[in-house]
Amino acid sequence: YNTEGSAQASSSSWKKVNYNNVYKDIADLLEDENYDDGSYGPVFVRLAWHASGTFDHKTRTGGSSGATIRFEPESAHGANAGLDAARQRLEPLKKKYSHISYGDLYTLAGVVAVQELGGPTITWRPGRRDKTAADCTPDGRLPDAAQGADHVREIFYRMGFNDQEIAALVGAHALGRCHTSRSGFDGPWNASPTAFTNFFYTELLNNTWVPKKWNGPFQYVDRESGQFMMLPADMAFKKDSKFRVYVEKYAADQDAFFEDFANAFAKLLELGVDFPEDAPFYKFKTLEEVLP
Ligand code: ZEM
Predict the structure, then answer these.
(1) Is 7 part of any domain?
(2) Are 130 and 81 in a shared domain?
């Protein structure tokens, strides 16, 4: 991809792209039996989140506009380990749709993944403009999995989220897994890591989580099977009484989770973006809804 650090040329480039076609092409890239649990969906969601979650509302820096996650030093920040797999997978679409910005491509990939894996419809707008390597955010803006509720609040309040939104967003940990080669942590959160469900909350509440016995970083595994995991930061949502209210709500009510996640995720992907006034809102249909 563009490693020269050049920003996008024209402010109206975004108008030349058919985003319904991009949606379909991203959806076609999800499945790969040789990658992880068979889908790039989870790592696309993580890419969209890490491209966006650098936002600081006080300085109005960071966020998905700019797509500085593709440049060093940001791409090499510890939290972003492994996300090159997602960026490489999407790169052919940047070639095919030359007028799309990386910021739009990465955030749209998160939307496609959530929807195609069975999650809610995410309202999305185009018009992010790519920046240069000079605009990379400093290390430390994304959450540290080894820490607890105070740290999680500090990080997400900086983006402008409240406790309810934070608790809804972390439900994305129904998807995917931890990789020892990336974060150092190990394992999936549940038995269906390629389906968007409210299982983060049900597993968190219904299992007994015990420290994993290993030489790796401190994490939890479920006592019964030892196959599923929780990060220390995940456990904070069970221990913290204010977060726990939402965990219980979302465990009991998948529709409430889907609605709150859709709103919070759409907000995340728009943090710090100055959209063109005429940028339309899209609600994409899934492939299943479109195809006969
Ligand atoms: Zn995650 N996340 N995350 N997250 N995340 C990982 C994986 C995934 C935290 C975290 O440290 C980690 C949100 C919030 C938080 C996803 C989505 C979202 C991993 C494992 C870690 C360590 C990485 C690896 O080894 O590959 C922390 C501390 C969070 C705050 C409390 C939010 C918000 C997300 C989206 C809305 C997803 C989908 C994955 C799985 C990635 C994959 O490759 O399978």
Answers:
(1) no
(2) yes
